[in-house]
Predict the 3D structure of the following.
Amino acid sequence: MTEEKRPKLTPKKVEGDRFCIKGTELNGGSCGNPCQIDVKDGKILRSRPLQFNKIYDPASFHPWHMEARGQRFDPPMRTLPSPFAYSYKKRVYSPNRVQYPLKRVDWDPNGERNTDKRGLSLYERISWDEATDIIASELKRIGKQYGPEAVFLQADMHGEGKSVHNAHGAPAKLLSMLGGYTIQMRNMDSWEGWAWGAKHVWGMEPLGQCDLSNVMPDITKNTEMILFWGCDPEVTPLGMTGMMPSQLCYWFKELGIECVFISPDLNYAGGVHADKWIPILPGTDAAMQLAIAYVWLQEGTYDKEYVKTHTFGFDEFRAYVLGQEDGEPKTPEWASGKCGVTPAVIRALARQWAKKRTSIAHGNGGGTIRGPYSTENARLEVCLLGMQGLGKPGVHQFKMIEWVGSMAVPKKGAKLAWWVDDVRPPAGTPMDSPQRFITPLSAEAPMDPDSKVGKLTARHPRAPQQMIAKNLLHDALLNPPVEWYGISSFMGPRSDQFNKYQYPAQGCSEIHMIWTDSPCWTTCWNDSNQFIKGIRQPKIEFILAQHPWMENDCLFADIILPVSTKYEEEDLGYDSTCGAYQTYFYENQCIDPIGESVSDYEVVCEVAKKLGLYEVYSGNTPVPERIELSYECNGVTDMPFEEFKEKQYVVLPTDPDWDKRPTALSEFYADPEKHPLDTPSGKLEFFSQGLHKHFPNDEERPPVPHWIENGVTHSERISSERAEKYPLLMMSNHGRWRMHAQNDDNAWCREAPTCKVKGRDGYFYEPCWLNPEEAKKRGIRHGDIVKVFNERGVVLAGAYVTERLRTGTAYMDHGARYDPIIPGEVDRGGAINTITPHNRTSKNVTGMAVSSFLVEVQKVNDEEMDAWKRINPHAFDKPYDEGAGLCLASWLADPSWLWKEEEK
Amino acid sequence: MSGQKTLLVDIARCSGCYNCQLACKDEHVDNDWRPYSAPQPNVGQFWMKIQEYARGTVPKVKLHYIPLTCAHCEDPGCMAACPAQAIYKREDELVLIDPDKCTGCGACAVACPAGVIYKNEKLGIFQKCTGCAHLADHGEKPRCVDACHSGALKLVDADEARKYAEEGESFVPAEWKPHALYLHIPKLFLAGAVLNQDGSDVVEGVTCRVNGRETVTDGFGDFWFEGLAADTYTLEIRSGSRTLYSRTVELTQSLNLGDIRIDA
C-alpha cells in the first residue's frame, strides 16, 4: 500500500455543538423534508422536524388551509419527515461506507485485468494519489485507443438531495472536456406505462400523468370514491415526500370518501385505510379495465355527451370492447380468468364507479405501471376516466409524490443551482427538444438568464455523440448493435417516441470503460444477471465507481472512490415537496467527512487535477463561493447571504391566490375546443393517431389499447407455457424500507419484520411474501430460506407468509443489495431485479418490465446450500454486520484496513 | 411538575410508519443520558416497539399496529421486584432504572408482563423507556410523541387521562395504575360477501344480523361486524321477514366467511 495522501479539497473540519438543517429526501432532484440536526461533540446527536415558525411569525409566510364538507385541514407547522429521515444517521455512520479509495486486488491496469473475476474479487486500500493517477492514465489511454465515446458515463437516477454537491452528473463536464463520451439515458423507470401509453391518449407532457393543479381541494370537496390503483401512499412517498400523504388519507376517511385499493397485495396504506381491497393478479389490470368498460357500455352508464365532445376514436374502442374486432366480448367472465377477480366484484366495481364521482390515486403507478405491456393499462385508465367525464368536479387522476401544485404553492418557487453538471434543470422540468438528442447534458442546454452561475463555470464544450438507453444496456454490452425508439432526452416529449436511435452510433466506438456515480443497475434495472455478464467481459477494460456505500455495482468496479454524505458537506437545499410549506435553506456541514471521502464534485476535481483540467473544470470557484453565488441566483429572497447563513432557512410565502388557479382538467372539461389536450386531435384519443401513423402494425401497442395475452416480446402470463414451471406472478414494489437501492444497510430499519427475515443461518434475507395457501403447497413455513427463480437465475429470500397477499402471486420489493454467490446466476441478497424480464416493455416501447413476471418459489434444502458453499466459500464466511448486514469489511482483502476514529 | 402525564395511544390513528420506534433509537442509541439512562445498543432493544397485526383472510384483511412502550405505572411492579433498589420514580413520576445501580438480575423484566424491559448484554444491565426524562427536564416531549405525525401518540395530563380510564386498555395489571392507555385496539370481526344464486352479482342492501346487531351489505355486497369478542355468533341474512341464510360460528379469531350465495 502506498503512503496515504489526502486530497487537497478535504472539506473544512467542524467545531462546536449546534444545529444544522439538512433536507432528508432521497429523490436526488430536491432536498425535501428538511430536518433540524443537532450536533454534539462532533457527532450527529439527533434529527427532528424543522419547525417553520421556529424563528418566523407564521403570518409572514401566509398560512393556508383547505375546507371541505364542513371540515378543515391545516397543514402542520413543521416538516413531516419519513422513517428514513429519523434513521438517516445510521446511513452516515454505516459500516457499509466506502472509507477510502479501493482497488480490486486482481485488476492490474498494466497487466492482467481479470475481468471475469469481477463480483468475486476483494479490494485493497490505495491512496488518492495512486487512484487518480490510474484513472487519469486510463482515461487518456482509452480515449486515444478507441476514441472518447469508449468511455461510458452512468450518472442519473435518485440519490441524496444535494445542490452544489449534486450526487449525479459531476463527471459529465470533465469527460466532455476530454472530447466526449457515451451517455447512459435514463428510461422512464417508475412511470413507463404513463409515458409510453397514456401520453398517446391525453398528452400530459412530460410524464404522461395527469396535471395536478389544485386537485386536492377539488377531490376533498367533490370525490365520493378514490381508487388507489396499485398505489401505496404510506410507502412510495417516504423517500420523496414524507408523511403528508398519510395525513391526507386520514382526512379522506373523515370526509367519508370511500377508499378502494386495487393491488395484488394489501399494501401498507390499504391495510389501514381501505374500505375495500380488490386483490388482482399482478399486471392484469387491463383485463379488468376492459370488463369495466364492457359493463358501462352494456348498461349505458357512462357519460355519453362527454364522450361525444371530448374524445376521439371511441367507436373503434367500443368495437374492441364489445368483441366486434376480435370476436371476444370483454365481459367480466372473460376478464376474471385473466385477472383473478370474480365477475361479481368486477361488475360491482363498475357499477360503484359509474354511480359515484371517482378519482384514481397513484404513487407513480406501482408494479402494474412497470411491467410487461404496461402501456395498455395506463391508456385504459385514462379511457375509463374519460368515460366518466374526466375533469369534472371530483373526477381526476392524482398522485401524492412529485405533487407540487396540487395544493397551496408559493407565488414564486426557489431555484437550485445544479453546479456540478450545470445543465440539468431541477427535477420535473421538461428537457430539451429531441432533435438535439443528446443536448440534455450538453453545452447547449439552456441556462437561467438571471443566473450568474453560467458566467463563472465553463460550459460543456462538446455534447456526447453517443447514448445507450439505460434499460438496453445489457444488450448493448453483450449483443451490439442495438436499436430503439425515443428517450434521447429524459422526460422527452411524445414525438421523440417515434425517433429511432442506435448503438453504436455512426462513427463511434463501442464502450470500453464505465464511470458510474449511480451504481445500482444490478438491483434496480431489468434482467441484471445479463448486465453482470456484460460487464465481466474483457472488452470492458476499466470500471470506475464513486459512491458513499459499498454496494451493488460497486462490487464489479476496478476502482471505487469514497463519496461523503450530505451531512459531511456544506450545501444549499430547497424543499418543494413536503406539502405544507416550501423552504429554502442553508445546509451547514454537520460532521467531519468519514474516512477519506469527499463530495461527488470534489471526486471529479481530484481526477481533473491529474489531467491538468482542474482550473477549467472548477472555474476556479471554490465551494463556499459556489454556494454564495447559488444563493444569489435562487430567486426567492433578498436576504443578505450572511444573514441567511445565520438564520439557516426561509419559508416561502404562500401565494394568497393559490386556490383561484383552475383545477387540473376543469377547463378542458368545460370547453375542449378552447382548452385542447396536447394530442393530435386535442381530445382524449381512445384511438391514438400517433401510434396509428408510426406503428400501424404493432400488435403489442395497437392504436386502441388492448389486452396483450402474449406477444413477441413477453411471455409472462399465467396462460403461458412457462407458467407450468414458474406458476407464480412476481409483484415487485418500490420498497417499504428503501428508496430504490438506498437505505438497505440501515440497521434500525432492518429490524422491522417487514424489512428483513432472519434465516436459520443468521443471515438477514429479503422477505418474499407468499399467501399461506401457496406456502403450504410448497411446504414452506414463515422464516424459511427460499429460492425464487426462473430461467434467468436464482434469488434467495426469507419466506414471509401472510394474508396480505393473494394466491397465484409472490411479492418482493426491489432494491435489496446484491450479494453474489455465483455472479450473474445466484444471489443471496434478494436483488429480485436480477431475474426480471430481459426485454423492453413491448416491441416499440423503450421501457423496462420489472414487476408482474413468472417465477417459482421453493424451500432451499441443506444440500443445495452446501453445494453453493463449495462453489463460493467466501460468500458465506465473509464479515457480516449484525445491524447493517453486508458492510465494507465484507469485501476487503484485509479488514484490518478499516478506517478508525484516530486517523482523523 | 404537578400530576403525572399519560401516554394516550390511539390505534385507530396509527398507520405503522415506525417513526416513533426510529426516533427513539435516534435519541438513545449511542447517546448517554445519565443519570437517567445509558446508551441503548445499536440493535435488539425497542423502548418503543411497533407491532404489526393482520386480521382475517384474503380479501377481508385489516392491519393494525400497536406501539408498545413502558407505561410508567403509578405502582410499578418492576420497581417492587427490583432487589437492588435501582428502579425509582422521579418527581414527575417517570419510572427509571438507574443504569449505575442496576445489577442486571432481570427481576424487573420477569415482573413486567408487557415485555418492555430489555437486557443490555454488553453493559450487564436492564434498560427501558425513560419517557425521555432528559428532554422532559427542558419541558420537551418524548421523541416518540414528537415524531408521531398522525396523532396516534399523545401525552395528556391527568384530567384528560381520566376521561379514558374506562375505555383505555393496557398491557400491565390494572392495579399497577399504568400511565399508557391504548384506545381502539381492534377486537375480532366477522365479515363476508353476499352474492346472488349463480354468483354473477353481488347483492347490495341486504340485511345481515349477528347476535342482535344489524347492518346492510354495501355496494360490493360486503358486510363487516367489527368489535366482537371471542364467542359463538349466529349470522342471519334477511330480506324483509324472510331468513335467506343462517350460520352459527365459533369465533376465536377474525373470520372472513367468504362469498355467501343467496336466493335474493
